[in-house]
Amino acid sequence: MEVMPKWAEVILVPLISLLLAAILSALVIMAIGEDPIAAVQLMVTGALGSTYGWGYTLYYATNFLFTGLAVSVAFHAGLFNIGGEGQAMLGGLGVALMCLLIPWPHWTLALIGASAGAALFGAAWAAIPAYLQAKRGSHIVITTIMFNFIAAALLNYLLVNVMRPQGSMDPASARFPEAVHLPTLHDLLAPIGISFSKAAPANVTFLIAVLACVLVWFLLWRTWLGYEIRSYGKSEPAAKYAGISPTAITMIAMLISGGLAGMMAINNVMGEAERLVLNAVEGAGFIGIAVALMGRSHPFGVFLAAVLFGFLYQGGAELALWTNIPRELIVVIQALVILFTGALDNMVRMPLERLFLMTRRGSG
Amino acid sequence: MTADDTSGRQETAAPAIELKGISKAFGPVQANKDISIRVMPGTIHGIIGENGAGKSTLMSILYGFYKADKGEIFISGQKTEIPDSQAAIAAGIGMVFQHFKLVENFTVLENIILGAEDGGLLKPSLSKARKTLLELEHEYGLNVDPDAVIEDLGVGMQQRVEILKALYRQADILILDEPTGVLTPAEADQLFRILDRLRAEGKTIILITHKLREIMEATDTVSVMRRGEMTATVKTADTSPAELAELMVGRKVLLRVDKTPATPGDVILDIKGLRVVDDAGVERVKGIDLQVRAGEIVGIAGVAGNGQSELLEVLGGYADGTGEIRVSGQPLDLAGKRADGRSRRARGIAHVPEDRQREGLIMDFSAWENTAFGYHRDPSYQSGVLLNNAAIRSDTEAKMQRFDVRPPNPALAAKNFSGGNQQKIVLAREIERNPDLLLIGQPTRGVDIGAIEFIHQQIVALRDKGKAILLVSVELEEILALADRVAVMFDGHIMGERQSAETDEKELGLLMAGVGS
Q1: Taking an 8 Å Cβ-Cβ cutoff, which residues of chain A contact chain B?
Q2: Most buried residue, B68, B149, B335, B397, by CB count within 10 Å?
Q3: What is the pLDDT of residues A1-44, one digit of tens each?
């Protein structure tokens, strides 16, 4: 018998966790002599009060959607992919090569090509740790972390020594040609009469990220491959009994995971920067872990969590801009959210379970 | 009869243990409901009940692992609080667990004093302990070499060490939790002789088991538990196995399997010179030959860990082996890509694994997802690239009905079914595929008596349809009741084969211990 109804499990637990994180954050803001209510108001108006704010919130959310889905897929196979950061960096390289080397006639074709490049490079970067795990038993947490550093060093080298245009002082690739610039939400919404901020970086990739959510859900719960991935993640001995190959599933799940992380690059590299710069990922790979944890590795949960973290990112930036609350405190608030929704999950869950039991006994 | 009746005749001494009104709930599950029991000193008191009846919970409360929600504990008439196992030991209670708690690479003596050392230096403790230990061994006839390393000892000897550990801590009350689960029949007999001796020396013993035979052989008094309640306490001499079974289950139970003599047909499974080496490089199966014919049940008897599991794993396609196996005349791949569960199923081999919770089921998956498990790539469960969830669900519903799975709810997660119903889900999945060969390991482990009857009937019915069945079980009684032919495994070899009608527990017991032809 389930102790809690499903709605309490999926909605109530994260909501209370968030509330606790908010209360603690408010105390911290009060402790440095600022007004927490004003801070919340500023965050909300800054992130959600205008299409400009929404444009940034959704832009960040798009990044987190891809990395969150990446972590989720691996997690369903029982694999903890900490390498989203490095895989997204390599995805950026794939996007840059696609955009710079092939003369695309139209952005739609370029988007397809760049997506393929991003997914391919991200998947390739995940393939090595996956192979080491499947065949040699090298722990995937260790290898994917190491591959983040290798990716950073590799990009550093390529951007400084190979891809930097002649005469440029900037460790970045050349600008992508005009033809591959992706339409922003402003461009997409204008024809149907909705005015959206021109300055915000949210672009067509957001729609692709939403599509990715649906496809991941489909993969995991409607195909036999997803069934095998989830089976393997729940119990390796059972998977072996059923004739599911651990090697194959480890490889496939990590390739999909790396591919998803890599696809983040079409948002930040192709959609926003329009060239490949150093440290383009900006930690989104790690935020993906928190997003997947909070979203319970379910695509819909990941969507909500990604938007929440997009809000925290954009709202936090506004706070840093308009108040004396230092930028570091924004990180503290984000960390509190991760702590409460991810790590301290049981702290909320257990008392809630007890509460539900009591009401059930009372009525039954 | 109730607890009061039995104790009424022994009013002279205070009970060694008296529990009054013990209740304990885990979440929504009431594991113990208002349990009262008196255990008289110098007796062997059996506690019998099905898996999940609450026996282990009750003993864990007595040993301080859990705190009772309600109720009182009296030790020799004194009200006693037992907040942890230290307090239990101080109160003179010793526990011998089903899974031994010994440090494998320590000597017997080192294990005995572990946690009971006096002083910071080891040497004086050891020499003092050696003297006490030898006295104890002498007093109770428990001969164990104090300097032997645990991993070199057999299970029976390791169990003696556990008993000595308790005695060394001056236990007057010994609780043994399913002590014969890993023993051969001969070792079990030895254990019961030791328990007799301990009783003669005035110790009180609580024996927890689900085996009726042991209760009848070893105990003075027996208490029966069902669904968290103590349903009866009776003098062993005044009861019978049938009565105890009925008290455990709550209805009349058929203890024997009804079956006609087998009519074996063609050879379905033909094993020649099979060898299996495990991941650690140890040879587990050392060249065995075995045949199973259509329409017969061949039972593999043996103490757990003598190669039976590895045999099933190779046949089931998830361990590599060398040698030759033919199924219906065609060779089976024993290593490589075609040696997996899926290929085996395609060859008409169904497998009910020994450990259903670890292998046979995904505990978090729903019953319908588990019904597709292993057959999820079967065309009947597909529509295009997608799983045909509706087809799987309706198939599950039909199977649940035919196998009387309760509750008949395909959406319920496997972990929320009882052991017996979990096993029925696995059996339904494997048997309804109408396999040529059914591999079945420990078909009734952790299954309640009521469901055992049903499961045995299903296995016999499959045999009567002319299918070959290879049964592995550590329950000798089950093998004798179910199998037509018995092969005994010991140390990776088949020690002998017998027609089950022409053999008995004693003969098989000797083979299981590696003695005999």
Answers
A1: 1-3, 222-224, 227-228, 230-231, 234-235, 237-238, 240-245, 353, 357, 360
A2: B68
A3: 456 777 877 788 888 888 999 999 999 989 988 899 999 999 99
